Amino acid sequence: MADTRFAITHYHDAAAINRQLDELISKPIYTIKPEVLKQYEEEYYGKKCVKSKELVDEAKAIIPGGVQHNLAFNYPFPLAFTKAEGAYLYDADGNKYFDFLQAGGPTVLGSNPKVVRDQVIDLLNTCGPSTGLFHEFEYKLAKKISDSVETVQMFRMQGSGTEACMTAVRVARLATGKKNILKMGGAYHGWSDQLGYGIRVPGSKFTQASGVPLYLFKHTQEFFPGDLDDLERKLRANVLRGGTAAVFIEPIGPESGTTPLDYDFNKGVERLCRKYGALLVFDEVVTGFRIGMAGAQGYFGVSPDLTIFGKVIAGGYPGAGGVGGKKEYMKYLGAGLDDSGMKIKKAFTGGTMTANPLSCCAGYFTLEEIDKQNACQKAGEMGDRLTTGLQEIIAKYGLPFVAWNEGSVCHLETVGTMHYSIDWCKPWKIPGVLSATSERKKEMQYMGAAYMAEGLVTLAGSRLYTSAAYTPKMIDQALQCFDKVLANVAVKPAE
To answer: What is residue 274's three-state secondary structure?
Structure first.
């Protein structure tokens, strides 16, 4: 029987949200008042984050930018965090924060849950983190994923979501004999060369892919989010270019839903993939085991050929990635040195630390607990409460900001950077778009710094993940902190 427990209690009106986002980017920038930002810099960061400042200043000598992780907030300087527990984070100076980053999405149970940690410690005491050989948790994790997600008949672990996407490209080309890959504009499928195309801003093509030779994008294309007509035009054109091997989509929209999609969109993509003989690849790095145990595909009633996993499948531990799908496609991912006698070309993939016992153990017990605790739904309820509260605060202060959520994936758009798009038929407008997104991104950093100073850790100041560790009381307390920030927002002064 299919699992019908999902984090999304009601699906949003995508068209209405996109209209609000259109209005947002048509208006002047609203941001934290300069005098308030200066006060945060002096009174909070200058006096209460001294140890973080010292650590980062030392790190800058040997680490570019002073930090190793792209999710670290760098304005006015990165904070050093030393403790994570449930819904809270603690920095080196002992300051306490509500954790709406949740490590970028993996921790549906909340950060560092004891029930998983104890199992990991036991494994470390007996086996250690890695052997390079088969371990029972490889099977247990794969079986749990396969039992939960209907389309996953087989599963191959990878070291990250990026690696899993790279692998899916190779499998699709082997399975179909075609070369072209289509992805949704603005979507993020890792940082590999071929998929570093059309990221962040729809229509941006190669402009965000510094360091990648353009010839590597010969077989990569993008289509505009939510636009089935555009997708079909590109699929039809590819018939004359050797066909399309795969269409990659994030099921809730590019960049974890920053451009909302109509509910029926995924079904439409599936129909077009069948019509043109392309594999449908669902990137569920964010949504897998966060939207529900059956994934976003279970919620939307779609049967992708391949599914990309990451983040949640290792519960916040390193080495979180994998590809699952139908046996007829997964046969290209056989591992090991045995000769089965089957004449099947293998998609070249691997990794010394891939599917290590630590990651598989953490992943298995994380999924078990998510299932037992009904954590997806609980986190989704907290996401609904947070979003409703944010919408009320926005209305209270008459701000043009937009808040919505897909279950426990919540959005608070104050500048709408990712709602811009590039039209190559009007190249004279491209510099203006890139300039506007850059300017607005800077203001988003300032808003993020203000949130942090009020005890709120967010993802880039615009995305928030809730977990099952949150309670209604915690959400209400966090909303009071958001209120303090949004009460001090005004139109950006002219420079």
So the answer is: helix
SS3 call for 135: coil
Q: Is 311 a catalytic residue?
A: yes
Annotated catalytic residue: which of 178, 311, 326, 378?
311
> Are 352 and 446 members of one domain?
no
Query: Nearest CA to 150 among 352, 38, 290, 292?
Result: 292
Whether the pLDDT of residue 343 is over 80: the answer is no
Predicted TM-score (pTM) of this structure: 0.93
pLDDT at 489: 97
Do 330 and 402 lie in one domain? The reply is no
- Counted domains in the chain: 2
Q: Which residue has the tokens 């490590």?
A: 103
Choosing from 91, 99, 283, 305, which is the catalytic residue? 283
pLDDT at 238: 96
Q: In the prediction, which pLDDT does 256 show?
A: 92
- What is the DSSP track for 55-88? HHHHHTTTSGGG-S-TTS--SS-PPPEEEEEBTE
| List 30, 40, 44, 188, catalytic entry | 188
